Amino acid sequence: MVNSTLVVTLYVNPMTGNDTNTGSRLSPFKSLSRALKVTKIPTIIYLESGTYSAASGEVFPLIIPEGAKVVGNEANKGAEILISGSGEYQSPSFGIQNITLLLVDNASLLGVTVTNPSLKGTGIWIESAAPTLANNTLSNCGREGVFTTGTAKPAILDNIFVQNTASGLVMAGHSQGEVLGNVFQRNRLGIAISDFAAPAIANNKLSENRTAIALSRNAQPVLRENLIAKNTQGGLLINGNAAPDLGNTQDSADNIFRDNSEFDLHNATTQKVISVGNQLNPILVKGLVELLPSNPVAVSTNYSNAPTESPSEKLPAFPQLDGHWAEPFIQALVRMDLTHAFADGSYQPDKPMTRAQYAVLVAIAFNPFPKIPAPDFTDVPKDFWAYSAIQIAASGGFVGGFSDRTFRPDQNVQRLQVIVSLVNGLGLPAVDSDVLELYSDRHTISEYARKAVATATQQKIIVNYPDPKLLAPSRRATRAEVAAMVYQALVAIGRAPAIKSVYVGLHSIS
Q1: What is the rounded distance in angstroms from the CA atom of residue 452 to the CA atom of residue 429?
Q2: Rounded distance between C-alpha atoms, residue 443 and residue 471, angstroms
Q3: What is the pLDDT of residues 345-364, one digit of tens each?
Q4: Which of 33, 241, 310, 459 shows the smallest number of beta carbons within 10 Å?
């Protein structure tokens, strides 16, 4: 039996609301401050368009408490929902600070614009907490857009950091967490990492900053698949005792440094930095840096040149899968001859999957009938390696583009996008969303996707590793996770036998 948990839902409209109202959809509050005063766990607060400032009744800093979810408009990165203001916060790590918002453990802020006009103002402060910050815009802050410290472990996903005076993002203390798919543009520093911070920085675009990424003290970030281009001074600056992970022989970093003015990579320390698989201009590399090529068994994305031998002649196993949790799913796809996008015999299961690779996989796996005319994506020319697969997947309802008519083939696909894609592409009937009680982070599921997630859960399509109860919808999907969910979708439509796994299905519902 599913245990139901009451979710408090509140609405705020700075234009038509009143703080004496009930906070319902038809009787919204005027200020976010008022909604936060009555917040209980769990709570979702929906913000209407407008400016949230002292003039509209806000009292800063705004504190988003544990388990609360503040939602604006994720589709346009909060372009019409502005939270602007500053108040004093006593940081255990850094003393008195002027901040706009404080995000507490497991809080979520989605689809708003945040600015702090104070001279040394910070937009969002995260101290020893693990919140989710996704699809927001951090702009025109007097110092930085986001500051993390203590033992913070946030998920900072698909935000825009633009024109902040000092930095887009600062990570200090022992901060970890993930910084994935963000845009950093026209900041003095795109990302500054200091102290003992060791976050994962992946699939971000950093351009037109003075310096894209600056490391100091004992910072040890992991940098993967970032585009670092057209910065007016340079790309990556390494100071102090900082030691970034820029790839190794088993895991190439695949960062692209391009068109930076003074340097792509400047190692100002006395310790040698190893760079594996990064695209750099050797002339713009300064200091002790050893440049190594990519792993020779890196993934090939040219599936049109895949071997034509029969499935029985293919490699019986990918060499990187021995004992991997997803090995049964991936090997099943190999036996079904569905891994053309990885035709060189490597799969690298813990790497993220791009939207182009995903389109190839679903096009081959499901070979869908056309439901709609395939869009003419402006960034997918006819000579692009995955053009045909993207057309098939799009016309079959498995993938779509963005409002600017782009497909963004090299962008990593998120777990939620995979789930919604499989449900929509297969046309699976919707089920009651009560089944979402299975997930401990169910309140981070976007409203538009709740029915699809419930359907995929009921059909045992969703695969959650390592915690079956943690959906992590905004996290980028690994190739292992995509393989497992695509295989489970084949099981759901009767085209493949079930594979027993503790990471699949409704095992945790009592």
Answers
A1: 9
A2: 10
A3: 567 888 899 999 999 999 88
A4: 310
